[in-house]
C-alpha cells in the first residue's frame, strides 16, 4: 500500500480509528503497518455479510404483506399479542446499518491507501450478524416456506429496478477495485479480480434478457382493475368479522365481504375465524373457566354476552387503529359477535356478495353445520348469486339444495375436470402470471389472497387477476393505476442507457486512477534515487 493520495491524512487517520478501533498515525503506518492476506480475508467476509444482510432486508420488506398472519400465529402459541413486524424491521435496520458502515469505511480506506486492520470486536459482531441472518433465513424456510414463493412474485415487481441498483453499486465498486489493482504488485491476484469483475458486469449488462414482469406492457394492454374482497371486512379500520367491519368494507367499495362461519352449540351460525374466542373477544373475563374451549362449544346466548370490539383498541393489530376517530372508537366498543343471518341482511342491504369458509371442517357435526348454514341462507332472502360458497365438504349437497349459490374452489383446475371451474380462490403465491392470463382467457374468475401491499396489487393487476382479498381495502381503493407500467420500448431504452453509462464510468475510474498511479511513481523513483545518493555519500 502506498500513502494516501485521494484523501487528506487527518481523514485517513479518522477512518482507521473507526475501522480498527485504534488511533494509527501516519508515522506508525510508515513503520510497516500493511494489509495482510488475513485482513483481505476479513474484508471479503465483511462484504459477504453485507450482501447477506442486504438480501435479508429485501425479504423483510416483502414479507410485511403477510406479517399479520405471523402475529396471529404467535398469539395462538403464546397468547401474547405484539406487532412483531416492528421488532423485525428495527433489528434488520440495525444489522444492515452496521454492516453498511463497515463496508463504506473499508472502501474509503482502500481509496486512501490505508491498511484494512479490522478490530477484533468488529470481527465478533460480524460473525454474530451472519449467524443471526442465517438463523432468520433458516426459520423462514422451516416455518414460513411459502414466503420463498412470495419473493419470486416480488421479483416481477422489483426486478427491473433491482437490476439498475445492482449495476449502479457494482459500477461504484470500480473505484476502490482500480485503486487496489494499481497499488498491488501481485499479478495473479490482479488478473483474477479483473476477470471476476468483468464476468459479473457482463452478466449484469445482459440480465434484462432474463427479467420478466407483467407490468412491462403498453398502456392500452392493461387489464381492468381487480375487484376488492374485504378479508373479514375491513380489519384495519374495524374489528374483524363484525358488522362494523362489513360496513367499513362497503365504504371502501369492496364487492365481496369475506368471512368465516362457525355454528354455536344450539345451531346458530355466527362469524368467527379462530377456533378459540380469546383473540377477538373478552371471553377470558366473562367465562374464564371456558375460555380455552372451541367456539362451537358456546351457545348463542353466551356468545352475545361477549365484547367483540374492545380488543381492537387494546391490542392495535394494525397501525391504522391509532387514527380512528372518537365516533369510530365508540362504535368499536359496541361490537358483538354477529350471526350469519345478520351478516346476510347487511350484505343484502349493501348489495355486496358474501364469501365464507365454514369452520372447523374436521368437526364431527360438520354436516349439521352445513345444514344449519344452508337453512339460514335460504331463509334470509338474499339473492343466491350473492353467496359465494368456499367449503369443500358436502359441496354436492349444497349444489342440490341451493343451486344458485356460486361455488368457489380452493384449487387449480384439473386436466379431466367433470364440471368446468368458474371461480377459484387461491393464495397469491400459488398462481403465476402466465396461469392468471390463461384462466382469464378461459373466463375463469381468479381471486387471490391476502394482498395488502400496493406493489403486490400492481403485479396482480398487470397479470389480469379478477379480484384480490385484502386487509387494506382503504389503501387499494385509492389506487387508480399500478405503481409502475413501462412499455417494452421504454424499458429497452433504460436498459441500454444504464449499461452504457455504467461502462463509461468504469472506464473513467480505471483510466483516472491509472493516471494518478503513474504520477506517483516518478516521484517515488526520484526519492529512491536521492536516498541512494545520500546513503553512498555517507558511506564514503
UniProtKB/TrEMBL annotation:
<keyword id="KW-0325">Glycoprotein</keyword>
<keyword id="KW-0472">Membrane</keyword>
<dbReference type="GO" id="GO:0008889">
    <property type="term" value="F:glycerophosphodiester phosphodiesterase activity"/>
</dbReference>
<dbReference type="Pfam" id="PF03009">
    <property type="entry name" value="GDPD"/>
</dbReference>
<feature type="transmembrane region" description="Helical">
    <location>
        <begin position="124"/>
        <end position="142"/>
    </location>
</feature>
<protein>
    <submittedName>
        <fullName>GDPD2 inositolphosphodiesterase</fullName>
    </submittedName>
</protein>
<dbReference type="InterPro" id="IPR017946">
    <property type="entry name" value="PLC-like_Pdiesterase_TIM-brl"/>
</dbReference>
<feature type="transmembrane region" description="Helical">
    <location>
        <begin position="84"/>
        <end position="112"/>
    </location>
</feature>
<feature type="transmembrane region" description="Helical">
    <location>
        <begin position="492"/>
        <end position="513"/>
    </location>
</feature>
<dbReference type="GO" id="GO:0005886">
    <property type="term" value="C:plasma membrane"/>
</dbReference>
<feature type="transmembrane region" description="Helical">
    <location>
        <begin position="162"/>
        <end position="182"/>
    </location>
</feature>
<comment type="similarity">
    <text>Belongs to the glycerophosphoryl diester phosphodiesterase family.</text>
</comment>
<keyword id="KW-0812">Transmembrane</keyword>
<feature type="domain" description="GP-PDE">
    <location>
        <begin position="226"/>
        <end position="480"/>
    </location>
</feature>
<keyword id="KW-0378">Hydrolase</keyword>
<dbReference type="InterPro" id="IPR030395">
    <property type="entry name" value="GP_PDE_dom"/>
</dbReference>
<feature type="transmembrane region" description="Helical">
    <location>
        <begin position="40"/>
        <end position="64"/>
    </location>
</feature>
<dbReference type="GO" id="GO:0006629">
    <property type="term" value="P:lipid metabolic process"/>
</dbReference>
<keyword id="KW-1133">Transmembrane helix</keyword>
<feature type="transmembrane region" description="Helical">
    <location>
        <begin position="189"/>
        <end position="211"/>
    </location>
</feature>
